[in-house]
Design goal:
The complex is a heterodimer.
Chain A: E1 2-8, H1 14-27, E2 32-38, H2 44-50, E3 55-59, H3 65-82, E4 87-93, E5 107-113, H4 120-123, H5 126-129, E6 133-137, H6 144-157, E7 162-165, H7 174-182
Parallel strand pairs in A: 1-4, 1-5, 2-3, 2-4, 5-6, 6-7
Chain B: H1 2-6, H2 10-16, H3 20-25, H4 42-53, H5 58-76, E1 85-89, E2 103-106, E3 110-114, H6 121-129, E4 141-144, H7 151-156, E5 162-166, H8 177-187, H9 193-207, H10 223-237, E6 242-246, H11 255-264, E7 268-272, H12 276-281, E8 284-289, E9 292-298, H13 301-325, H14 333-336
Parallel strand pairs in B: 3-7, 3-8, 5-6, 6-7
Antiparallel strand pairs in B: 1-2, 1-4, 8-9
Helix pairs in contact in B: 8-9, 9-10, 10-11
Classes of the chains: A alpha/beta, B alpha/beta.
Chain lengths: 231, 337
């Protein structure tokens, strides 16, 4: 199974670029399945269905979505094996900007859009920094100069990644992304595979369901900010 | 090179390559605080936790540092890919009928693409952008400088050799014209930033019907002013050697001069248009029908003669628009004569 992890902030265009890329791959006779990881609700299932793309959704609900991703990715892979796909593409939203579902030796794609502002690349963590391919969307509605500046800003935080400009509406650029995706190697199992980056460490009373605010309620890992600095 | 740089202090490196500040800033490292620190010691001084807090690790930081230097060198050396000519070899149209001839697009020339909506103009632009090698629906092949690019060339360009301009594009950055151009120039690693910023600003003001100040936020420019600034910026600052333009007819910019500006900066210009003035300003035009190239027409001398009267009509319409805007009575007397 050739596995590809796609991650990116909400509304950056993940679903659109995945659909456009699948359309390119299908023309070459490949079978592709999608697993969508989300927190509360995912409406994209209909979108995938409308394009006849087999899809499964995993909703993390009260759990951290990226931890949830790791616990379920093996099962997703098994589903894809059973269905005899050539490719499994997983889609997840990097909600805290610190997490990243990217796995070593598995093609990692981060999707980010030109409208998110020039300082955004710096704010997004390992999901962008450690991606093999950075797909930049919504280039059709900003100026050439802004596209160039934005790509440079992405370069600053991820100098080794390949940048793909992709228009999620017309599919312009999907051809190129599909070419890159096609080249990825196959994985048999994810047992023993390693995440590219540690997930944020958190095990505190709030993780376990505490709702009340207060010093005496906080047990476990926490961190205090000195807002007053050296005043 | 790598070992040599690792032994150098941040001050020394900043002296050689001031732009590394851009990379350091993405790790929130202020170079002035570590001036005398050697690059190789930065990791142990900041500690591994520091990098982890910022979603990375020391090794990735160092590897990235050298990759970033390579990337910037590519930017500084000018064009990622210098394109003197593009050749579109025949593919087929939507009925599978073969296109009959190839089309050559040369540096410093304008080619118009004409045809009904949905006929396949965008597909042609997309084929060119992806440097198609019989692997797109049209099965066209694109040659650069007369030969087929290998996969490496094709995909290492990341589309940087093509600039695009369309009616739907807007500025979204919250910056003044001057700061915006400066930011773009910085990211392009040009030497004399204030000089190029001035040049783009002046040129844009010539192209725009109404002039604007350097302090105007780019998001507040009118449609015509935005288009003028985009064209001047693309012509003078973009690394792209090919410019694809999609419909700029109603933009309120000096269209003919805009094309001249792009061409004089040695760009290959393709413009998809329905505007007779723009189409006849081009050196040749490709007619698209049913997904395929059905005709290639050189602009004839007779047509060029009409260009003058077309420009007159265009100017007249601009004048009428101004009369409307400024509350004057519409005067068509010179046209009726």
């Amino acid at each position: 199974m050739r596995l590809v992890t796609v991650a990116g902030p909400p509304s950056s265009g993940k679903t659109s670029i995945i659909i456009k890329t699948i359309e390119e791959l299908r023309q070459k006779g490949f079978a592709i399945g999608v697993v969508k990881f989300d927190c509360l609700s995912a409406q994209d299932e209909e979108l995938y269905a409308a394009h006849n793309i087999p899809v499964r959704t995993g909703l993390s609900g009260g759990l951290c979505p990226d931890h949830f991703f790791v616990s379920n990715i093996e099962e997703a892979l098994r589903w894809a094996e059973e269905r005899k796909f050539d490719f499994l593409i997983t889609e997840s939203a990097g909600l805290c900007n610190r997490c990243s579902p990217h796995i070593k030796d598995v093609l990692a794609i981060c999707v980010i859009d030109n409208l998110s502002g020039v300082n955004t690349p710096k704010k997004i963590g390992p999901m962008l920094k450690l991606a093999d391919i950075v797909v930049i969307t919504k280039g059709d509605i900003v100026s050439q100069a802004e596209r160039e500046v934005f790509a440079y800003r992405v370069r600053q935080v991820n100098p080794g990644g390949t940048i793909v400009q992709l228009n999620g509406v017309t599919g312009q650029g999907a051809f190129y992304l599909a070419k890159l995706v096609e080249k990825t190697t196959s994985v048999e199992t994810l047992q023993g595979a390693v995440l590219r980056f540690t997930m944020p460490g958190a095990l505190c009373s709030y993780c376990l369901g505490e709702r009340m605010i207060g010093d005496d309620r906080q047990i476990g890992v926490s961190k205090l900010v000195n807002f007053r600095g050296d005043e | 090179m790598r070992t040599d740089m690792l032994h150098r202090t941040i001050d020394e490196l900043m002296e050689m390559m001031p732009w590394i500040e851009d990379y350091l800033s993405s790790f929130a490292i202020d170079p002035s605080q570590f001036g005398r620190t050697k690059l190789e010691n930065l990791g142990s001084i900041l500690t591994e936790e520091y990098f982890e807090e910022r979603g990375s690790d020391y090794q990735t930081f160092i590897d990235g540092f050298f990759l970033f230097i390579e990337q910037v060198k590519v930017l500084q050396e000018g064009n990622v890919l210098t394109v003197g000519s593009l050749t579109v070899l025949p593919g087929h149209n939507k009925n599978g009928e073969k296109e009959e001839f190839s089309v050559e697009l040369k540096k410093g020339e304008v080619t118009a693409i004409v045809g009904p909506t949905g006929s396949g103009k965008s597909r042609l632009l997309a084929d060119i952008e992806s440097l198609a090698q019989e692997d797109t629906p049209t099965k066209r092949r694109i040659l650069i400088n007369g030969r087929a690019p290998d996969d490496e060339e094709r995909f290492s360009t990341e589309g940087r050799f093509i600039a695009q301009l369309s009616q739907n594009m807007n500025f979204v950055m919250d910056l003044s014209v001057e700061d915006f151009l400066t930011l773009h120039a910085e990211s392009r690693m040009v030497d004399e930033i204030s000089h190029i910023v001035q040049k783009i600003y002046d040129t844009a003001n010539v192209l725009a019907g109404e002039s604007f100040s350097r302090e105007t936020p780019v998001t507040q420019l009118s449609g015509g002013q935005s288009r003028a600034l985009m064209i001047a910026d693309t012509a003078l600052l973009s690394p792209a050697s090919v410019v694809l333009i999609d419909e700029i007819e109603n933009a309120g910019v000096d269209k003919v001069r805009s094309l001249e500006l792009l061409v004089s900066n040695n760009k290959i210009v393709l413009i998809s248009t329905h505007d007779p003035l723009l189409a006849l300003s081009a050196d040749q035009r490709i007619v698209i029908k049913n997904g395929g190239i059905s005709k290639l027409m050189k602009t004839t001398d007779d047509e060029k003669k009409h260009l003058e009267s077309l420009e007159k009509i265009d100017r007249k319409i601009t004048q009428l628009r101004d009369q409307l805007r400024t509350g004057k009575e519409i005067d068509m007397s010179d046209l009726l004569a």
